[in-house]
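Dear colleagues,

As part of the handover before I leave the project, I'm documenting each prediction I ran so the next person doesn't have to rerun anything. This entry is a single chain, and its sequence is reproduced below.
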Amino acid sequence: MFRYIIKRLLYIIPVLLIMSFLIFGMVNLIPGDPAQIMLGQHVTEEALEVARERMGLNDPFLVRYGRFLTDIVQLDFGESLISKRPVSTILQEKLPATIELTTFAMIYALIVGGLAGVISAWKQNSIFDYISITIALFGISMPIYWLGFMLILLFSVFLNILPTAGRLAAEIDPSVLKTNFFLIESLITGQWEIFRSAAKHIILPGIALGTIPMAIIARMTRSSLLDVLRQDYMRTARAKGLKFRDVFVHAIKNAAIPITTVFGMQFGRLMAGAVLTETVFAWPGMGKWLLDGILQRDFPVVIGATLTVTFLFVLVNLLTDLTYSLLDPRIKY
């Protein structure tokens, strides 16, 4: 397994290299002058030319890309054109928020979707089965932004039991925490006021973000279990006198591979696609930060955020592959 992990980690290098080239090239095709964005609209042409020369914008494309690669190896994504802060520093603030939100959403999706799929397969063609299939269909079809607004109207405006936006209540000072993992750190350190506030704030965006994966996992769990239960070896086990409950437990293990694949893909997709959810709920994560960077033509932010999401997506896929052997020992590396 160790050799396999090393091999897969080495595969990440060419993937990131190709992605860096594509991202750098496409960002350079975006209309807008970084020097103009940095200095503002009311600036002389001479000052613009000096800024372009200092930023290396007049150099050939390959020269600029080589300099970009050298900085990336040192985890230097440059400086934001808008906030004038290092992109790597902002990443340390935004990435934990997205990781917490995505993790909460996927835990919710796995628990609710997995249980619904298992019960639907156990009680096939029952009322619960029909209801869960219908809810899963609606869950896949609902736009995230619409669901987000509906959740805000119901739980924040009408019932007034959950906050509408942000990660913490306004009266709480987040500087008492050493990291930006508010929920995890406050739980570990026993700062219960911060934990309660962070937990309340993550519920609505987590449900909105995790509803589509929940519906997909529910449908995949049900179909995978039913497919396994129809296999010949399952019929043989039933014919030999095994109870349906015992056969069903074995079916869950054998059906876990496609469910794990869907879970891993959805996890990686949510890491990259939390833009709408973070925008609706004003969640200070990477999705909203990336959207703001695109709208403001903040090229270092766009490049840094996109490369980080690419790396996380590849890493999640690697962890998913490693999980296969734990679920099914017949799978070899």
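The two ends are 7 Å apart (CA to CA). The mean pLDDT is 82.

All the best with the project,
I.
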